[in-house]
Design a protein that fits this description.
The structure holds two protein chains of two kinds.
Chain A (H helix, E strand, L loop, with lengths): L8 H10 L5 H5 L4 H14 L8 H10 L1 E2 L4 E2 L9 H13 L8 H10 L17 H13 L8 H10 L17 H13 L8 H9 L20 H11 L8 H10 L8 E2 L6 E2 H13 L8 E2 L4 E2 H6 L15
Antiparallel strand pairs in A: 1-2, 3-4, 5-6
Helix pairs in contact in A: 3-5, 3-13, 5-7, 7-9, 9-11, 11-13
Chain B lengths: L10 H30 L5 H13 L4 H15 L5 H21 L4 H12 L12 H20 L4 H13 L6 H14 L4 H17 L4 H18 L4 H13 L2 H16 L9 H18 L4 H16 L2
The chains are: A mainly alpha, B mainly alpha.
Chain lengths: 325, 315
């Protein structure tokens, strides 16, 4: 068994390349496939192995999920269109510089059609609402350069109403603060230049208190540590410029200890089965912590930072400086 | 995936597991391909409906199949049926989703389908009682969500669903009864942050409508919080709730009183009269102590101390 005090990049690259070999879990999660492709690709970018998966095959997969009647993407061929896979599709095409494959006006129309009178977005025509969908809409519109079509006031006013007694945000008005929902609201506000909505000291305190004695972060008080919160919590703190409020060394050790040192990939916590979701968020967390040899990630978009910067979309966030070694 | 342990299998056990998974996969793919093919050909038959039931039992996260099932209700199962029959069909789906929720309490698609069922309950049973079906269903829903919260008091899907039920009930119980529900949940377990959160929302409503006097209510909340603090001083929920109460009351006087109480808890200094400088000194002292006992967050305490020092110098 190799040591897990280092990020085992070649092993994780091979892990991502091997995903999709016929197993039950893979097929039971077809409804997440587009997201999974985006997670895998972004992880490869941050580990500086963008070309480890075929660009052409990836783009062909994305386009095979286009649902023409809706003007949107599903997660897998023959699955219904939805906002979440539509965002992931756009992100993948942006990373591969292939946005020209998208019918921008039609996708924009689909996204805008999902905004509710209250300002929140639904995920599809069946009407489930969640601040995750609000973020997906704002992110997608900004990547498509269509943000000017959004009713910003209405969108921001919904997020304002989601603010809780602890400074955090939930999935809908009235919902409990949860780190993933905090991230989507904070990142959406960053894109819309409305960070004034946040009680920054209070929220940064709530976020800092997610760190447990074992160094890992949880998503809410009294919950277990989980590697994915390395991203949700850390990126929110980056936007608030308070990454120093958590112990970077302890968190780094925790993430590294959750690696599967035999088969590659990162798990939610040490000893568990890895998956591509925890792999990207573990690697992204390490990047924000300045781990040597990784590429900068933009915490607002969860995409390579230089790419977002080149599109003129970089906001005022701060990560820890990249260590030399 | 969350919470799935890595297991070391022997070669023989690994082979056996691979075979079982392979057989399960074959069966799953056959069913999934059949349902998707029927969906594409717009098959709205009872047979197709039954197949979606089978497939959703195997994979309740397959949202496209929930969509197909709902389309079948609208296009073929509801039309030509009486309100009583429609109500019956929806009752069956509410039972199905309750069964699935017991095994999969956090799957969005199942909770969504419940809401959809509720939203499609027909008027009835009679023109004089158009909300009869709804009343009876909503009352059952409150019971269902209480069961889910008894099983996991931190399940945010269940709490969100509870708030949705209360907000849409034809005859909702008064906010004070929800306050009592949060009291029960908190007294059962002081670290139930979800219950403290709900309490913060209910109290805010009661203060805004004037049903509860804010000042008196906050005094009572400090009492509740004090009990919780003495029971479990390390519990985070209580301290976060406490910070919110401080922000809502008469700041200076309360802060003075609270620092005194906290000092008693830390058994640090005897009671004494405070003036403003003593308050600042006490804060700086506490921050230095916090740095020692909570090292991961030392940078935050440093920033706060800096803020107090520079603020104090400016006086």
């Amino acid at each position: 068994m190799t040591s897990s005090s280092q990020l085992l990049i070649p092993l994780h690259v091979r892990y991502i390349q091997s995903l999709g070999e016929d197993d039950l879990t893979y097929h039971l999660t077809a409804h997440l496939r587009m997201n999974a492709v985006y997670w895998g690709l972004t992880a490869l970018c941050i580990m500086d192995h963008k070309d480890a998966l075929s660009k052409d095959e990836t783009i062909e997969y994305v386009m095979s999920c286009w649902v023409d009647e809706a003007g949107a993407f599903g997660p897998h061929p023959d699955h219904d269109p939805h906002l979440l896979p539509t965002l992931s599709a756009i992100q993948i095409l942006v990373i591969h510089d292939a946005l020209d494959r998208i019918d921008v006006p039609r996708v924009t129309k689909f996204i805008l059609s999902l905004q509710q009178p209250s300002g929140v977005f639904a995920g599809d025509q069946f009407g489930e609402i969640d601040t995750r969908f609000l973020y997906s809409a704002v992110n997608a519109l900004s990547l498509l350069d269509q943000l000017h079509q959004l009713d910003v006031e209405k969108t921001v006013s919904y997020i304002k109403q989601c603010k809780n007694f602890d400074g955090g945000f939930g999935a809908v008005i009235g919902a409990e603060s949860h780190a993933a929902q905090v991230w989507v609201c904070t990142a959406a506000l960053a894109i819309l230049d409305r960070l004034d909505v946040i009680d920054q000291d209070t929220l940064a305190w709530w976020l800092a208190e997610r760190q447990l004695p074992n160094g890992g972060l949880n998503g809410r008080p009294q919950k277990l540590e989980d590697v994915c919160y390395s991203f949700w919590v850390l990126s929110s703190l980056s936007v608030l410029r308070k990454v120093s409020w958590i112990d970077a060394d302890k968190l780094t050790s925790f993430i590294l200890s959750a690696q599967d040192t035999e088969n590659g990939g990162i798990a939610d916590r040490p000893g568990d089965l890895p998956d591509v979701f925890h792999t990207i968020f573990g690697v992204a967390g390490l990047s924000l912590l300045g781990y040597p040899g990784l590429v900068d990630i933009d915490p607002v978009y969860c995409m390579p930072a230089n790419l977002i910067e080149s599109k003129g979309l970089r906001k005022g966030w701060e990560a820890l400086p990249r260590k030399a070694s | 995936m969350h919470g799935v342990k890595r297991v070391q299998y022997s070669q023989a056990a690994l082979e056996a597991k691979k075979q079982r998974d392979h057989d399960k996969l074959k069966a799953y793919l056959a069913l999934s391909d059949d349902v998707i093919a029927r969906k594409k050909s717009h098959d709205m038959s009872n047979e197709a409906f039954e197949l979606t039931t089978r497939l959703l039992r195997m994979n309740p996260e397959f949202y496209t199949v929930w969509n197909y099932r709902r389309d079948m209700f609208i296009e073929s199962l509801f039309p030509q049926r009486s309100p009583s029959e429609v109500n019956e069909l929806l009752s069956d789906d509410l039972s199905l989703t309750f069964e699935l929720l017991k095994q999969h309490p956090k799957v969005y698609g199942i909770w969504n389908h419940r809401r959809w069922c509720l939203e499609h309950i027909p008027d009835g049973p009679s023109p004089d009682d158009v909300n009869g079906y709804r009343n009876s269903t909503w009352n059952k829903e409150l019971f269902v969500v209480e069961k889910m919260l008894d099983a996991d008091a931190r399940n945010f899907h269940a709490w969100n669903y509870r708030r949705y039920i209360l907000a849409t009930m034809p005859f909702p119980p008064p906010p004070k009864s929800e306050l009592a529900y949060t009291t029960r949940k908190i007294e059962a377990n002081f670290s139930n942050f979800s219950a403290w959160h709900q309490r913060s929302k209910v109290l805010t409503t009661l203060w805004e409508t004037g049903e509860l006097d804010r000042v008196k209510s906050i005094e009572e909340e400090f009492e509740l919080v004090r009990n919780a603090m003495y029971t479990d001083p390390d519990d985070q929920s209580v301290w976060i709730y406490h910070a919110w109460l401080i922000g809502n009351g008469n700041y200076a006087a309360r802060l003075q009183f609270e620092i005194t109480s906290i000092q008693e808890l830390l058994d640090e200094q005897p009671d004494s009269k405070w003036d403003k400088k003593a308050l600042v000194d006490s804060c700086l002292e506490l921050l230095a102590k916090l740095r020692d006992i909570d090292p991961p967050r030392r940078r935050r305490y440093d920033e706060i101390a800096e803020g107090i020092r520079s603020g104090n110098e400016m006086q």
